[in-house]
Amino acid sequence: MNVVVFGAGSLGSLMGGLLARAHDVTLVGRDPHMEAVRRSGLELTGEIELVTDPDARTDAPSAADLAVVTTKAFDTESAARALSGRADRVLSLQNGLGNEEVLRTELDRVLAGTCTYGALYREPGVVECTGRGEVVLGALPETKSERSDRDDREGCTDRADRVDCADRAAAGRMGAAFREAGIETTIAGDMIERLWEKLAVNAAINPVTALTGTPNGALRTDEANRLATGAARETARVAREEGIDLAEGRALAALEEVLGTTAANDSSMLQDRRQGRRTEIDAISGYVADRASEPVPITETLRDLVRAWERSQGVR
Ligand code: KPL
User: Fold this and answer.
1) In sequence order, which ranges of 129-264 are alpha helices (DSSP H)?
2) Do 158 and 216 belong to one domain?
3) Are residues 16 and 71 in the same domain?
4) Residue numbers of the domain that contains 210
5) N-terminal to C-terminal alpha carbon distance within the chain
6) SS3 for 118?
7) Catalytic residue among 23, 194, 198, 233
8) pLDDT digits (tens, 9 = 90+) for 191-220
9) How many folded domains does the chain comprise?
10) Which mutation among 10, 92, 116 tests ligand 1's pocket best, with the greatest number of atoms within 8 A of CB?
11) 300 with 177, same domain?
C-alpha cells in the first residue's frame, strides 16, 4: 500500500517508520527532520529499534492509497487543504475531538483513529519509541448537522448508509495494513466512544504533565494522580451529557493503562512546552470545558494555566 503520513513529528514518524516495514511510505514534515531522513533514513530507538528508509518531503505527494494525518489539531484545516484530491482514504490519528469533521470539509472517505504509542523526537532523523500502545481505527458516521447540510446540498438521504458501509469495509482493510506492519491495531465499531475515551486520557495526562514537567508515569501516584483522575472523571461526565456511553470506570481504566504503557514518555504537550510551541490545549481541555453543561473545575483550571503559559510565550 502507498501511505503518506502527513505531519511527521514524533508520533507521525514512529507510525511511518513502522508502516514502512510493510508498505511504501512517504513522510511529510518539516526540515531539518525530513532532510535527515532523506539523507540517512529514519532511525527508531527505545522500545522499538529499527532503521527504515521512507521517502521524506515537506509537501504532500500527488497520490496515495492512504493518508494518515498526525498533525496537531490546530493544523487540521491546512492538512485537509494540502491533501485535497491526493488520497483515496484518510485516517486521522490526532489528539482531540472534531478533527474528522474538519478533514471532511475538504476530503472524502475519512476514517477516525486513536493512537496510544509513546514517541519522543530525539534529533533530526531519530525518534524514540517510549511505549508500545495501540492504534484503534474505524468508521465515524457523519454528525447530524453534517448529514443535514449534505442532504440540503444534494437532495438525497440514502447516501449516508452507503458511505458508512464503505467506510467500515475500508477500516477493515486499513487495520489489516497496520497489522501487517506489526502495529498493535484494533478495528472498532464504536469510534465516537473511543475518541471520547482517548480525550479523557489526554485531558488527564497532557496538561498535568506539561505543567509539572514529569513523564506520564509520575501521574500514577501523589497529588498529580488526583488531578489527572479528576480531569478524566470530568471528561467522562461531559461525554455522557453529550449522549456518549462512557462510564467513569472505563475512562479511569483507560487512563491507568496508558499511564502504564507510556510511563517513560513525555506527553506531546510537555514536549510542546519544552520547545516553546503552541499546545493542543484548546482541542483537549478546551473542547471538554466548552461542551460541559455543569462546571468542570479541574479541566478549566488546567486549561487556563496552559493557556496562560502559551500567552506568556507569545504562542497564543
Ligand atoms: O496521546 C498522548 C500524548 O502524549 O499526546 C499519550 C497517549 C498520552 C502519550 O503520551
Assistant:
1) 144-154, 159-180, 191-212, 222-241, 248-261
2) no
3) yes
4) 191-313
5) 39
6) strand
7) 198
8) 999 999 999 999 999 999 999 999 999 999
9) 2
10) 116
11) no
For the question of whether the overall pTM of this predicted structure is more than 0.70, the answer is yes
- Bridge partners (DSSP) of residue 23 are none
Those residues with Cβ within 8 angstroms of residue 241's Cβ, 6 or more apart along the chain or in another chain: 291, 292, 293, 294
How many angstroms separate the alpha carbon of residue 261 from the centre of ligand 1? Answer: 10
Q: Say whether both 141 and 28 belong to one domain.
A: yes
Residues 171 and 270 in one domain: no
Could you read off the pLDDT of 26-59 as tens digits, one per residue?
A: 999 999 999 999 999 999 999 999 999 999 999 9
- Can you tell me the distance from the alpha carbon of 31 to that of 24, in angstroms, rounded to the nearest whole number? 21
pLDDT band (50, 70, 90) for residue 170 = very high
Distance in Å, CA 270 to ligand 1 centroid: 10
Regarding beta strands 2-6 and 118-123, do their DSSP bridges make them parallel or antiparallel, or are they unpaired?
A: unpaired
Give, for 126, the enclosing helix (H) or strand (E): strand 126-131
Residue with cell 514512529: 14
Q: Please tell me if the CB atom of residue 271 comes closer than 6 angstroms to any atom of ligand 1.
A: no
Catalytic residue check, 72: no
Q: Which residues pair with 299 in a beta bridge?
A: none
DSSP count for the chain of H helices, then E strands: 12, 12
Task: Let me know whether 181 and 308 are in one domain.
Answer: no
151: left (phi over 0), alpha (psi -120 to 50) or beta: alpha
Residues 267 and 169 in one domain: no
Q: 183 and 141 share a domain?
A: yes
CATH at 121: 3.40.50.720
Cα separation, 241 vs 252, in Å, equals: 17
Phi and psi (nearest 5°) for 290?
-65, -30
Q: Identify which of 14, 199, 262 to mutate to test ligand 1's pocket (most ligand atoms within 8 A of the CB).
A: 262
